[in-house]
Amino acid sequence: MSISPGKKFRTFSFLLVLMASLGLAAQLTFPPSPGEKPDDARLLATARRSLFGGDPGAAYKHLLLSESGMAGDEEWRELLFLTLIGLGKPLDASAFVLGQKNASGRDRMRSELLLKREGPAREPARFLPETQVFRVPKEVARKAVSMAAAGGSVFVLTPEAFYTYPLDGSPQAFRTIAGGKEILDGKGEPLVLTSSSIVSVSGTTQLPLRINDAASFARAPGGGLYILDSAGKVFLLDDGGKIIEERQILIRKPSKIRTDELGRVFILSDSGDDISIYSSGFDPLFVLDPAASGAPVGRVSDFRPDFAGNIIILEKGSKELSFFNFSKRFLGSSSDKAFQADLFSWDGGGSLTVLDRKKSSVMKVSL
Fold it and tell me: pTM surpassing 0.90?
């Protein structure tokens, strides 16, 4: 993705880099103990557990203790970046990356996205449809319940089958699936959720019997999966499908579960059309009620968070997309654009893929 910020954005980026170079942006105020210094690798592991356990403050302290020996380590830098976001300091996280001489293209892109979505010169979401459109069979479009896009392909799920449409024109793939509900992509092969199993190219994993009619799923920190069932329980499964944790969520009619890169959990209520947001340790953070924000948003059909918890919402009636940052600020919608979305996926950056049932079409949309 290519980002071309304007003059105001470039000036603000320069100021953040200057702050980082002077050591002001992150306000490192936790000095190491004058006693024996713990092992850096152990400190890093403790910081990781703290962050993904819902305590970014503790993660921050352990990262500072290991800074002298680990500041050049890629995982250390990634954890500090995410920790600053978790502490509610996205601009400090952006400044930290922009102050790195060897920051990767992905890191710089995420830093710039934080500025665009959380900075003082926030840019409105554009939702610009691209010219390339491809058709799917009408029956597939009519029955589709979930979609995803990754690796140059679009994946469309119906209750009976899973379709792969390569964008390079190569032959589509098809697989019969009984009771398909959702697709999950982003890390390796796509996964498909049914009420009682998880299906992938490599095989099928039956869900434990304690899970009562699985409704939605999301990736959890450390490689596991969260499963939301129809009884309002959230299960954490390991890679082998074994239950590690089980929680009862006090939300009426929970229907969708999502996560961001900090492991924070987002759950949609079909009853209130709001999204409850929890820390990675499942401490309640806040509730996003799009209608109460004053934005022209109706009932919520689906939603997707990016790496930092900024959310795109799909409305049921209007089939429009709306964008909110993690601070609950409305960043714009697709209301004036010449497309409708019945389903959508988002790479978390500047590209969405939407399916229009009426036109039996799939198109790319740029933010």
Answer: no
